[in-house]
Amino acid sequence: AGDGEKDALPHCNLQVYTYTCDVGKRENVYSIAERVRKEVGEVSVLVNNAGVVSGHHLLECPDELIERTMMVNCHAHFWTTKAFLPKMLEMNHGHIVTVASSLGLFSTAGVEDYCASKFGAVGFHESLSHELKAAEKDGIKTTLVCPYLVDTGMFRGCRIRKEIEPFLPPLKPEYCVKQAMRAILTDQPMICTPRLMYMVTFMKSILPFEAVVCMYRFLGADKCMYPFIAQRKQATNNNEAKNGI
């Protein structure tokens, strides 16, 4: 303002509703979706963001954890979309956001279940986007969000080559949210953060597998999850010892 006062945001009486839902269980998703419709109204923006990781090598991972990873990270997208898409189609208005991962575009060792679930989420999102285009529902937008490692503690211990780390540090959650929101508000179909992830995806698409292996080894990305898995295993062992298991 001209008098030097700070611009103030207009006062808005916003209401926030929260619900507890196990997105891995379709009956729970459908029942909560019905409550949302009755108590809040129709949903025009759906953000699929729930994610879990087991943190075990394949042969050491309990079957139930593999199933949980797939149910939460991938299958849940089917249930939430089936719950809210019909009204979007009727109104030809809405936005579906899939928060996947760079590990849904290229993989690494030791997190087979996580990579499979994120590849599944990316495949689901892309196929759904094509279906909406084929149906000429141009009022319904889709945005695929594929961030690199985010500093939330979910993959604490994950390390790439130390010489490369300064150029590819874990991303701050606030930065990822800001980038994702910008993509959503501008109807951007896909956002990878940082931009270097586009290059890695492109290289993986055109190079022979052995060349990709060499690239991974140079970056230290081939075994980047091993320290994380070791930390998870140590934490589990310590917890079991503490509880006398």
UniProtKB/TrEMBL annotation:
Known EC number: 1.1.1.300
A Pfam short name: adh_short
Catalytic activity field: all-trans-retinol + NADP(+) = all-trans-retinal + NADPH + H(+)
Entry-linked PROSITE patterns: ADH_SHORT (PS00061)
Signal peptide: none
Classification via InterPro entries: NAD(P)-bd_dom_sf (IPR036291), Sc_DH/Rdtase_CS (IPR020904), SDR_fam (IPR002347)
Transmembrane segment boundaries: none
Location within or outside the cell: Endoplasmic reticulum membrane; Microsome membrane
Molecular-function GO terms, alphabetical: all-trans-retinol dehydrogenase (NADP+) activity
CDD domains (alphabetical): 17beta-HSDXI-like_SDR_c
Pathway: Cofactor metabolism; retinol metabolism
Keywords, alphabetical: Endoplasmic reticulum, Membrane, Microsome, NADP, Oxidoreductase, Signal-anchor, Transmembrane, Transmembrane helix
Membrane topology recorded in Swiss-Prot or TrEMBL: Single-pass membrane protein
Entry's Gene Ontology cellular component terms: endoplasmic reticulum membrane; lipid droplet
Main location: endoplasmic reticulum
EC top class named in words: oxidoreductase
Family indicated by similarity: Belongs to the short-chain dehydrogenases/reductases (SDR) family.
Protein name, per record: NADP-retinol dehydrogenase
Taxonomic source organism: Tyrannus savana (Fork-tailed flycatcher)
Phylogenetic lineage: Eukaryota, Metazoa, Chordata, Craniata, Vertebrata
GN (gene name): Rdh10
